[in-house]
Design a protein that fits this description.
The structure is a single chain. It is built from 13 helices and 23 strands. It is α+β, with helices and mostly antiparallel strands. The protein has 4 domains: 2-93, Rossmann fold (3-Layer(aba) Sandwich); 119-186, ATP-grasp fold, A domain (Dna Ligase, domain 1, 2-Layer Sandwich), CATH 3.30.1490; 191-320, D-amino Acid Aminotransferase, Chain A, domain 1 (2-Layer Sandwich); 327-422, Alpha-Beta Complex (Glycinamide Ribonucleotide Synthetase, Chain A, domain 4), CATH 3.90.600. The strands form 6 sheets. Strands 12, 15, 18, 19, 22 and 23 form a 6-stranded antiparallel beta sheet that branches. It starts with a strand and ends in a 5-residue tail after the last helix. The chain binds adenosine monophosphate and glycine.
């Protein structure tokens, strides 16, 4: 079987690695891929939003299965294009991807289907939102409606910050047309949890629950990033909470989408807040999370290509999906300065000393030159390690990190701190 993976980050490297373990996968292409992906797949110079280029490539090369990593091609309708050309592709179609593509749609959808979420109000007019925030209670959250590369949600502590956020989104239009609508939302206090689920639109199979660390500094402080680390399983979620999340969130979401003729096939990502008034949805994504995927897919014991094909064909079977009992942790190795300005082109040392026993290293922002790996982005590598419990996995991942270095390498030294604090409280 020939597979094409769309994307070029740590998430896509993990997907390619897992697919490479499948006995039926004979060849992997990645568009555009990265230097690490290039060690197990053939990288193709096509951008993720070049829908016609990608469709033609898949057709010309008789690709048997295409897997979409990022949200942009999904919301543009890549699945519809591939299906129209008779090609198999893993991911939700354009209508179903709107769950991530428009936060206003997602909020109204949750309201309609009684799925717990923060209370909210949608605005299209500048003066109306200003009137509203002048009379509101703080903190609150202001969000651009459309895709904003994870930067479209702004937590505001007071009216000045709220006015600034509205100015940024509606007047300066920093997110372009994504900011034509704006959502003002109740601020939820609690702990964030990620649940992703495989679904073929009928059957829903939740993956191991995880937690990511979005902020740049230790203690979850400072500006948000694309993610500085993640771990799984998360020990705040016991079997009762898992059932609540399935019954009150996952099932009504998938069934609600089907009822609205938006049958969802692929991975549904729910960003949740565990509050003292129950679990609420913060956001939906229509794809695998990054960096959560780097810890989740290594724990999956199934053949990933087979799981993808079963979902596409509508035969997902919950009893067949098996997970390892191990814990997994990933630490992101970033360029100093990220998420602001940073330098690239630094030589990465130590990758050749990493063995299977140490863990895995997935590339995000790397390029290769003269047989060397160089940094080419803000988030450069994901070190991933495993253990019999979270404590073990954390110790192992930091031993792995010790083996790798490049000039001005920055990483958080406290990934998994909440889980470690909880050890002994909940199994
Ligand atoms: P979003 O783009 O909706 O995923 O939001 C990005 C981040 O902003 C989330 O991961 C949370 O940390 C924070 N956030 C978003 N909405 C809320 C909310 N209603 N209450 C508290 N924090 C939020
Ligand atoms: N880890 C958050 C995301 O993938 O959007």
């Amino acid at each position: 079987m020939k597979v094409l993976v769309i994307g070029g980050g740590g998430r896509e490297h993990t997907i390619c690695w897992k697919l490479s373990l499948s006995p039926n996968v004979k060849k992997i292409y990645a568009a555009p891929g990265n230097a690490g992906i290039g060690t197990i797949a053939e990288c193709v110079d096509l951008a993720v939003d070049n829908l016609s280029g990608l469709t033609n490539f898949a057709k010309d090369n008789a690709i048997d299965l295409t897997v979409v990593g990022p949200e942009v091609p999904l919301t543009l309708g890549i699945v519809d294009e591939f299906e129209n050309r008779g090609l198999k592709i893993f991911g939700p179609n354009k209508e179903a991807s709107l769950i991530e593509g428009s936060k206003a749609f997602a909020k109204d959808f949750m309201h309609k289907h009684h799925i717990p979420t923060a209370s909210y109000k949608i605005f299209t007019k500048h003066f109306e939102v200003l009137d509203f925030i002048k009379a509101a209670c703080y903190p609150l959250v202001i969000k651009a409606d459309g895709l904003a590369a994870g930067k479209g949600a702004i937590v505001c502590k007071n009216i000045e910050e709220a006015c600034e956020a509205v100015e940024k989104i509606m007047v300066q239009k920093v997110f372009g047309s994504a900011g034509l609508k704006l959502i003002v939302e109740e601020y939820l206090e609690g702990e964030e949890v990620t649940v992703m689920a495989f679904t073929d639109g009928k059957t829903i199979v939740p993956m191991v629950f995880s937690q990511d660390h979005k902020q740049i500094y230790e203690g979850d402080k400072g500006p948000n990033t694309g993610g500085m680390g993640a771990y799984a399983p998360i020990n705040i979620v016991d079997s009762r909470l898992r059932k609540t999340i399935y019954d009150e969130i996952l099932e009504p979401t998938i069934m609600g989408l089907t009822a609205e003729n938006r049958t969802y096939k692929g991975v549904l990502y729910c960003g949740l807040m565990v509050t003292n008034r129950g679990v609420k949805v913060i956001e939906y994504n229509c794809r695998f999370g990054d960096p959560e995927t780097q810890v989740i897919l290594p724990l999956l014991e199934n053949d990933l290509a087979e799981v993808f094909l079963n979902i596409i064909d509508g035969y997902l079977n919950i009893d067949e999906i098996k997970w390892s009992e191990k814990s997994a942790v990933t630490v992101v190795l970033a360029s100093k300065g990220y998420p602001g300005k940073y330098e690239t082109g630094k030589v990465i040392h130590g990758l050749d000393t990493v063995t299977e026993k140490d863990g895995l290293v997935f590339h995000a922002g790397t390029k290769s030159e003269n047989d060397k790996f160089l940094t080419s982005g803000g988030r450069v590598l994901n070190a991933v390690a495993f253990g019999d419990g979270i404590k073990d996995a954390i110790a192992n991942v930091y031993n792995l990190v010790e083996k790798i270095n490049f000039e001005d390498m920055y990483y958080r030294k406290d990934i998994g701190w909440r889980a470690q604090n909880r050890i002994g409280m909940i199994r």
